[in-house]
Design brief:
The complex is a heterodimer of chains A (424) and B (245).
Chain A: H1 3-14, E1 18-30, E2 33-40, H2 68-72, E3 76-83, E4 91-97, H3 104-108, E5 115-121, E6 127-133, H4 134-138, E7 172-181, E8 187-198, E9 207-214, E10 217-223, E11 233-240, H5 252-255, H6 259-265, E12 299-300, H7 317-323, E13 327-332, E14 337-341, E15 349-356, E16 362-367, E17 370-371, E18 376-377, H8 379-385, H9 402-423
Parallel strand pairs in A: 1-3
Antiparallel strand pairs in A: 1-2, 3-6, 4-5, 4-7, 7-8, 9-10, 10-14, 11-13, 11-15, 12-17, 15-16
Chain B: H1 2-19, E1 35-44, H2 58-63, E2 68-82, E3 86-105, E4 111-131, H3 133-136, E5 141-157, E6 174-189, H4 195-205, E7 209-223, E8 234-244
Antiparallel strand pairs in B: 1-2, 1-8, 2-3, 3-4, 4-5, 5-6, 6-7, 7-8
The chains are: A alpha+beta (424), B alpha+beta (245).
Chain lengths: 424, 245
């Protein structure tokens, strides 16, 4: 089997495949004059590689956009066109740009070029597949006219991750233009346009990530700098240190470290509120790095974690994939705090927070201080320990908010006034 | 102590208000008057620790000894009224009060990152008497007294955001307590300071009188529908705005 084909197939498999299916109707009007009409089929998002289905971004995360991970792995944008009549003197070209690429000056002007070629084929049959490298689309978005490639020969022929490094946050909308052109670069017929956006710069990591111990939990808070924008979510990562070489995140051994305190009190249930067993899964590589704490302070000097020291920004796809198993929570972009529960008492937890945008770009990750969850005592614990036996009402009281009270008061006032006026 | 201060304030108000009377040309409201509405802010600390048989002070040890601010409202129907004497009415009150503190480390009782909270939803059915004799004589003060039944729904959340007990067979931190409560207070009639505006307000909206008031309340909510009651009553000092219409 040819080596080139193997490389192509490997690349084809490694990238997740996005596809747009269009129907090209070429109607010959007269000799030498082709009219190209393209229509979009209802289901244009098909996947040639089923294994990519699971990792494809959800509909709320703009799957048709190109993010940093897409670009870094140079995913193929796969389009399949049905052509009813192939022009004899034309080639099918794909151009990318923020303006109308069907205009000649947008493609050829030395100083006015806003479009650049990303793919091209000479169709020999009516079903035409066109693949576009995401790096070819991303790499020239922010380039000047002189820096943009003029022909297909100017495009790199191998994966070039450096093309994915842009500076501006946010999305840049652009279109891919599918069009037949003649020998003079004039467009034949009506081009087909496919809209996408390039967003490869994630928001900066939050600052001042502070962790405090909770009841089998870690409370996190953080701040953000003013320059950070387009944060869609904060992703929290947790790694509870292991006390044995095969802890694997289970909590049986760890909870015993706090047993003494419970025994002294002699009142609380030994296992009350004990964390679930999913805490710190995947912690085996850090086994033995910290010893269990008695839970007296909740603060530990250091924890071992894949994000310590913090990696440089932007975070690579490989790094994000490697820490995905430590993800322990996601919270909206306006939040500045989070509480993660389910940890063993007294066993240190390493935490970190990353900000991600609407297409899951993560600009950086910030590690917090290391804390050991503790057993806490609440008001109700104290009340019951003091011998109080109230409670256990099965009726859940309604929750009145301030707005509800105000609304009720206004309604009452309005009703009373109405009653008054009627009585006058 | 706070209650005594409140009573002192109530006693001092008449003198201050008398000095503030701008003139004797004030005329009481002109339109009919049947209702009263109060918007209330109160400083309160439940007397949970006073329950007999309780060892220690779980409330104060957790939330401290200070009062905390709550808010609420009251609506009265003044079914019997003589402008030269006063009014007798029936009222219903609702209030919301809560306090939050850091949960403590079980071992050394230091503060942790978790919160523990106590929430109260206070309801009352009251008989209300307002003495308007002073106001009818040109002294813009209306003493009042209330008495009736109070019922408070309560719930306490632990660090995990639930109200379950950690004690084997323990009760959930949720319930209701009821009992007798009474109040006494003094209202300052604001209409006397700007009679023309008061008259315009009456004509436009039917609001006859507007007051600022302070009120002392003592609620003995020591009973529960079943089992023991969490003593979520106690003394409170309330201030607010009252409208009669």
């Amino acid at each position: 089997m040819p080596r080139g084909w193997l490389c192509f197939r490997a690349m084809f498999r490694s990238a997740f495949l996005r596809s747009a299916v269009a129907t090209a109707l070429l109607l010959a009007q007269a000799a030498g004059a082709q009219q190209v009409t393209l229509s979009q089929t209802p289901d244009r998002r098909t996947f040639a590689d089923p294994s990519r289905q699971a990792t494809y971004r959800s509909a709320s995360k703009f799957p048709d956009w190109i993010n940093y991970a897409d670009c870094a792995s140079n995913v193929l944008l796969h389009f399949q066109l049905a052509v009813t009549s192939i022009p004899t003197n034309g080639s099918l070209q794909v151009w990318a740009g923020t303006d109308d690429c069907s205009k000649l000056e947008a493609r050829t002007g030395e100083t006015t070029r806003t479009c650049w070629p990303v793919s091209g084929v000479l169709p020999s049959q009516q079903n035409v597949s066109v693949d576009v490298w995401s790096q070819h689309v991303v790499g020239y978005v922010s380039k000047t006219a002189a820096e943009k490639p003029k022909t297909f020969a100017d495009l790199p022929t191998s994966s070039t991750p450096s093309l994915c490094t842009l500076s501006a946050q946010g999305a840049t909308a652009l279109k891919l233009w599918f069009m037949f052109t003649d020998g003079s670069n004039n467009v034949m017929g009506t081009p087909y346009q496919w809209s996408t956006s390039v967003d490869v710069v994630g928001p900066s990591a939050p600052t001042a990530v502070t962790a405090s111990a909770g009841d089998g939990a870690v409370n996190l808070s953080w701040t953000v700098s003013d320059a950070v924008s387009d944060v869609a979510e904060y992703v929290v990562y947790c790694l509870q240190q292991s006390t044995t070489s095969d802890a694997g995140g289970t909590t049986d051994a760890a909870t015993s470290s706090d047993a003494g305190a419970l025994a002294d009190a002699g009142t609380a249930a030994e296992d009350a509120g004990s964390p679930s067993e999913d805490a710190g899964t995947g912690a085996t590589e850090d086994a033995g790095s910290a010893s269990p704490d008695s839970g007296t302070s909740g603060t530990i000097s250091a924890c071992a974690a894949p994000w310590s020291p913090e990696p440089a920004s932007p975070l690579t796809s490989e790094f994000l994939a490697s820490i995905a198993k430590y993800e322990c929570g996601r919270i909206g972009g306006t939040s500045r705090s989070s509480r993660v529960s389910g940890f063993a008492y007294g066993v240190p937890v390493a935490v970190a927070v990353a900000a991600v945008d609407q297409v899951d770009n993560a600009g950086g990750i910030r590690a917090g201080n290391c804390v050991a969850p503790v057993r806490t005592i609440s008001f109700w614990d104290r009340y019951e320990e003091a011998g109080g036996d109230a409670g256990s009402c099965s009726y859940a009281p309604p929750v009145f908010s301030g707005n509800a009270l105000t609304f009720s008061a206004l309604v009452g006032l309005a009703a009373a006034l109405r009653l008054r006026r009627k009585g006058r | 102590m706070r209650a005594r201060l409140a009573l002192l304030a109530l006693c001092a108000l008449p003198a201050a208000a008398s000095a503030a009377i701008p003139g004797s040309d004030y005329q009481p409201h002109q339109s009919s008057q049947d209702f009263a509405l109060e918007l209330r802010l109160n400083f309160f600390k439940p007397e949970i620790d006073s329950a007999p048989g309780l060892k220690g002070t779980p409330y104060e040890s957790t939330f401290g000894g200070d009062t905390h601010l709550g808010f609420g409202g009251e609506f009265d129907w003044q079914f019997l009224r003589n402008p030269h004497i006063g009014s007798i009415g029936l009222g219903v009150g609702v209030g919301r009060w809560s306090t939050t503190a850091k949960a403590l480390n079980y071992v050394d009782l230091t503060a942790t990152g978790d919160d523990t909270t106590l929430h109260l939803w206070q309801f009352a059915g009251l008989g209300v008497f307002r003495l308007e004799a002073l106001a009818s004589m040109g002294i813009p003060l209306v003493p009042f007294a209330k008495a009736g039944l109070g019922y408070t729904l309560w719930r306490s959340y632990g660090p995990d955001g639930t109200y379950t007990s950690r004690q084997p067979g323990g009760n959930r931190a949720i319930g209701g307590s009821y009992g007798f409560q009474w109040s006494a207070g003094l209202a300052l009639l604001l209409d006397t300071f700007d009679p023309s505006s008061a008259k315009n307000l009456d004509e436009a909206t039917g609001v006859n009188n507007t007051y600022l008031f302070v009120e002392y309340t003592d609620a003995a909510l020591n009973a529960a529908m079943s089992g023991s009651a969490l003593r979520v009553g106690g003394e409170s000092l309330t201030g607010g705005l009252a409208l009669e219409f």
